[in-house]
Design a protein that fits this description.
With 165 residues, the chain is mainly α. The chain has one domain (4-164). 64% of the residues lie in helices and 0% in strands. This is Membrane-bound metal-dependent hydrolase. The chain crosses the membrane at residues 54-74, 94-115, 135-157. Keywords: Membrane, Transmembrane, Transmembrane helix.
Length: 165
């Protein structure tokens, strides 16, 4: 997607549906970090196709592994910042790993739905997810983001009431 923030919509919804199973900060980072390479292609320093090796399930799995490793190795001070956006104060390794994988793979699925140059199952050719319906996919991303924000807001409100009781 040329506008990376659209990837945050499905990430928010996924986290809202499974907040204890998917770590929100890790999920959000993993859902957009893949576009760093695409931005480097679009804006100059890298050559090649915009949707390259990271926009495959294999490449996204490597990215997810790196994101999860980075999230799990954050110093306590930085980890405390991430805790502020988590609906639940404690998060385990499995939730961080699952969040990273869900974020990275959702990125591949969204890009595969829109772009002819995405080969999600590389080294196999083809893209079975291509729908080529930009308005539909962007609209679904916005709707998912709104629904996810409502779910997370309700969870935060419940958590705040529990903390003050």
């Amino acid at each position: 997607m040329p506008f990376t923030p659209f990837h945050l919509g499905p990430a928010l919804l996924l986290s809202g549906l499974a907040p204890r199973r998917l770590d929100l900060p890790t999920l959000l980072v993993a859902s957009v970090v893949i576009d760093v390479r695409a931005a480097l292609v679009v804006f100059g320093p890298l050559g090649g196709p915009v949707h390259g090796p990271l926009t495959t399930f294999l490449g996204a799995t490597v990215v997810a592994t790196l994101v999860a490793g980075a999230a799990l190795s954050l110093p306590a001070r930085l980890g405390g910042l991430a805790d502020r956006v988590r609906p639940d104060a404690t998060v385990g390794t499995a939730a961080v790993a699952a969040g990273a994988l869900a974020g990275a793979w959702s990125h591949v699925l969204l890009d595969a739905a829109l772009y002819h140059d995405v080969a999600p199952f590389f080294p196999l050719a083809g893209n079975p997810f291509l729908v080529d319906a930009f308005g539909l996919v962007y609209g679904a991303c916005v709707a998912a983001g709104l629904a996810g924000a409502v779910l997370l807001a309700a969870r935060y409100a419940r958590s705040a009431r529990t903390d003050t009781s």
